[in-house]
Amino acid sequence: MTGLALAVLTFSGWNWLTPAGGLLLLGALILFWSYRAAPPGPLRWACLALKAAGLAALALCLLEPLWFGERARPGANLFAVLADNSQSLQIKDAGSPRTRGEELRQLLDPAHTDWLNTLQSTFELRRYVFDTRLQATTDFHELSFDGRATALGGALRSLSDRFQGRPLAGILLLTDGNATDLTSLPADLAHSPPIYPVVLGSPDPVRDIALGAATATQSAFEDAPVAVQADATAAGFSGRSIRATLTDESGKVVQEQTMTAGAEADQLAFRFQLKPSRGGLLFYRVAVGAVGAPAPGAGPAAPPGQPPASEEATMANNSRVLVVNRGGGPYRILYVGGHPGWEYKFMNRAAQEDKELEVVGLIRVARSEPKFDYRGRVGESSNPLYRGFSDQAPEEVQRYDQPVLVRLNTRDALELRSGFPAVPEDLYGYDAVIVDDVESAFFSPVQSMLLQKFVSERGGGFLMMGGMQSFREGGYLRTPIGDMLPVYLDGATGSPRPPEGGWRYQLTREGLLQPWARLRDTEPAERARRDAMTGFQVVNWVRGAKPGASVIAALHDPAGGEVPAIAIQRFGRGRAAALTVGDLWRWGLSDEGAHQDLDKSWRQMLRWLTADVPKRVELTVEPVESDPNHAVKLQVRARDAKFQPLDEASVAIEVAPVLFDAPVSAETKPVRILASPALTEAGLYEATYVPRLTGGYHATAVVTNAVGAEVGRAAAGWSSDMAAEEFRSLTPNRALLADLAQRTGGRILTASELNDFARQLPQAKAPVMESWSYPLWHTPEMFGFALLCLLAEWGLRRWKGLP
Fold this sequence. Notes:
By secondary structure, the protein is an alpha+beta fold. Helices cover 21% and strands 29% of the residues.
């Protein structure tokens, strides 16, 4: 076996070397002289060789030969025996009358543990069982094979930490190798003592239906609903119908699909598409099974004539829980218009059909007039547009030297009361800002810089729309607002005359790849829709897109002229976009279909503009790496009204399991935990949660400031499926165990080799060894060999009649 300590032959009587050599030489001369008269032939040489060998053995005894070697000192070394206690040992291999766990129990039965007694005669044994954690035992009576995970890597690390600096001679590992936290030997186990795995289970495939990878992908845009992809395997069910069922958290079946199982290695790919009727966090469960068998975990027995549910090796790997987040809105968008127009009407009407969007309007209906150009009644200083509103306070009446602004869809009477926000606390409450046909002079220098910081630091979205007072015509060249636009404003001349029929709108290749920019499922359909669009008459001419910007759509004329229609780019933490078309509203006036397309286009563009915009309170779920219990770290990022990290806050997180059809119990009740400030990042609060059940989890974080006022709330969800990892493979992972053995100096064993292994292990290298010596010169074997040689020589001579 690997690591055996070899014995060596030594001589302690070197002072007898010369006499022994002389006697041997003398004996050889006498032998040759005595056999000179013997008849030549093989018999003479055979007798000569036998007598010479006997004399040589006697001469060798004068040198006192010794066998010398090393062995593990009895009782000085430790040896660990680890037994797997996970659920995967409940599998019954094909053709086997017992489960893997029952075979393991038999190996550890006192009636069959001669190998353990042999090990214990030399080593100080340490016995352990492991599943999600390592647990010491005296006789392995704790083996119940109900562990939710096989934390093989964690068990080996824990064992290494416990015996660090102590003489651990090796580890005997009784497992099927299907680890849930280990795919290859980590660097911290490379210097582990020798590991000797005993592989439990047969490599032959078992009869089972298993759900492999199951994912849910979604987009915020209407042409990309929630897509659920589930891959299943059906070993031993060739030709049978396999059904996949998608249910929501109330237990209602959303969709079903049935496919026929093929060869053993074939995968069944189930694909679902759905449009949830509500937003927020949604949970779905995908389950697969043979048609006629009960659903995983529940249901009546199969009807007569159908195979029973027990025909599968396990039902624990037949379902998965998926989490879908349909938005954390409503997202608030501030629209700033230079005059009442069609664009706001179409945009606002489209946004009203989306519960996640909320457009707040600040529209100028009259410009400020020169201070000495009053045209009202004599002595009147207020704007005539406000004449008759006698119940208004004097400070609310607009003067001639102030623009007349109308607020629409505001949250309360104070929102936007002073016009466009001038402080971060007011502006940062929005997720995006749209500027439509407003000159740069409308914004004060402080407001312009604040709007730029809104995008670059706060992470908001910004869109400038075309018009007579937009882009270069609006004086945005070399201003903070113009600097964050994705197009160049310098070098651009005035807008040319529109061609006959107007400018033709066309998505670029990059635009066709953006789900928010296209309105059809296929490129031919999108091209047909584009060809049917009306031409546009108003466009702001720009020099081109900046480096790093993306042109999503362009405007073309018959002569080959082109100008970006929609350009986007990242700007700091946020994103900025330019829409150079000044009469997009024409698109919605051609027919009813175009009107619906325009509404859809606006909703998707607004969704893109507000996507990934940070909130004041955000909750994320991060799995704890290599944790066998599937623990998660709940991270809450809290910010104040200026979107600076919020310290000295109180963060409470309520975690509730999503039941589906599970019965209500103490484990299904919501749990409230407090998050603690993290040392690595300001405004970050963390808490760790260990799930107890398989399924979905819904977490809600509530942040309050130092005075007890609520700052905000955030929600997140995740799913924990230990059985999916535990039963990812039903065949033993022999490759992983072989890697563990090879790289640590051990070897893979079978159950039948345990007795021989226990006898040979004391001769292997161990941390604490002792020397042993065995004298050969006065042993019966040495004397018997010499006597046998002499007697054989005498017998041959007598038999053949030699002298």
